[in-house]
Design goal:
Blueprint lengths: L2 E2 H8 L2 E3 L5 E2 L1 E2 L9 E5 L5 H6 L4 E5 L11 E5 L2 H16 L5 E2 L4 E2 L4 E2 L4 E2 L4 E2 L4 E2 L4 E2 L4 E2 L4 E2 L4 E2 L4 E2 L4 E2 L4 E2 L4 E4 L4 E3 L5 E3 L5 E4 L4 E2 L4 E3 L5 E4 L4 E2 L4 E2 L4 E2 L4 E2 L4 E2 L4 E2 L4 E2 L4 E2 L4 E2 L4 E2 L4 E2 L9 E3 L4 E2 H16 L1
Parallel strand pairs: 4-5, 5-6, 6-7, 8-11, 9-12, 10-13, 11-14, 12-15, 13-16, 14-17, 15-18, 16-19, 17-20, 18-21, 19-24, 20-25, 21-26, 24-27, 25-28, 26-29, 27-30, 28-31, 29-32, 30-33, 31-34, 32-35, 33-36, 34-37, 35-38, 37-39
Antiparallel strand pairs: 1-3, 2-7, 22-23, 39-40
């Protein structure tokens, strides 16, 4: 990036306080900013850096009122956090170079069909009858099973394993080591106490603009599909079991686990280490607190639950206050 504060303000729909011609060539955290860099201020606890920082420019919310003199040029925008996200994306898009590559150390089945400018790293195996869309990038040591369909402009990082018959949409990011489509944990107990495995013949269907974190596993269904809808964000080390449906734009932080056949509504948020038992339905826009365990249906849209077992967040706080008080007596 090499732009003036005036040019950045025009891109972001903001205004400039200070030198509009100061040039910006890079990004930095507000505590580390220096000449030629742009930082952002969105959290009040970092306000002292606004006055002591040396960055050339600073993104701030439109209503910010400095309490001291500021040496940096201020670019005022409606939402500073959203603005820096937009700039980072712009910079990343400029650096992307979609180019064709087929490593000689990879194995691509003759019946597989790869789109334009697909990049294939070393030791990749692409099975028969696979279909991969334009401008998708496949990192080293990736395996893609027979009949899998992958859309355009996807990024598949090293060490990802995609089992046969999976369906993956456009602009999907699969981070290193994640597994798409292994068997779910399905077993039937026999009269003699042993377990008989349930075969899993279904698949996983991932929508557009989904991101799946490193070492996360999404299990295939015994029949039909495990479904991850458009815009879902799944962090590292999560487990999505067989036949689960995750609604669009839902976000799951690290170590979240969703048991089989549960249905998650759109726009839900799961904090770290939260869990959901099998065969439950969770209403859209529900928030599940960290380390919480959902053991029954949540039918009210926009609910916020916490605890193990999870209950209404306000009820939990009241109960915890009473518990703490009794423990101190």
């Amino acid at each position: 990036m090499d732009k003036t504060a005036r040019e950045l303000a025009a891109i972001l729909g903001g205004t400039v306080d200070g030198d509009p011609d100061v040039r910006i060539r890079g990004f930095a955290k507000i505590e580390h900013g220096g000449p030629g860099q742009i930082c952002f201020f969105a959290n009040p606890k970092y306000e002292h850096y606004v006055y002591t920082g040396k960055a050339s420019a600073l993104l701030v919310n439109s209503d910010f009122k400095p309490r001291q003199e500021v040496s940096s040029t201020l670019i005022r925008v409606p939402d500073a956090y959203a603005a820096v996200s937009a700039l980072l994306k712009m910079e990343a898009d400029e650096k992307k170079q979609y180019r064709r590559r087929r490593s000689l150390r990879s194995r691509i089945a003759c019946s597989a069909r790869l789109g334009k400018r697909v990049w294939v790293g070393d030791f990749v195996k692409i099975g028969p009858k696979c279909r991969i869309g334009d401008c998708t990038r496949i990192g080293d040591n990736v395996t893609i099973g027979e009949g899998t369909v992958i859309g355009s402009q996807c990024i598949i990082y090293p060490g990802v394993h995609i089992f046969p018959g999976m369906v993956i949409g456009d602009r999907v990011i699969l981070h290193a080591g994640c597994i798409i489509g292994d068997d779910g944990f399905g077993n039937v107990k026999q009269p003699d106490g042993s377990w008989q495995k349930i075969e899993h013949l279904g698949n996983v269907v991932i929508g557009n603009d989904v991101e799946v974190g490193s070492n996360t596993t999404i299990d295939r269904a015994p029949m039909e599909s495990t479904i991850i809808e458009d815009g879902v964000r799944i962090d590292n080390l999560c487990q999505i079991a067989h036949n689960v449906v995750v609604g669009k734009n839902t976000a799951m932080a690290a170590m979240t686990g969703i048991a089989g056949s549960s249905q998650i509504g759109e726009g839900c948020v799961f904090a770290g280490q939260s869990g959901v038992v099998g065969h439950v339905k969770i209403a859209p826009h529900t928030t599940v607190g960290a380390k919480s365990a959902v053991i029954g249906n949540i039918s009210k849209e926009g609910s916020m639950v916490y605890g193990s077992p999870a209950i209404d967040h306000k009820t939990y706080l009241k109960a915890y206050a009473k518990f703490k008080k009794s423990a101190d007596e």
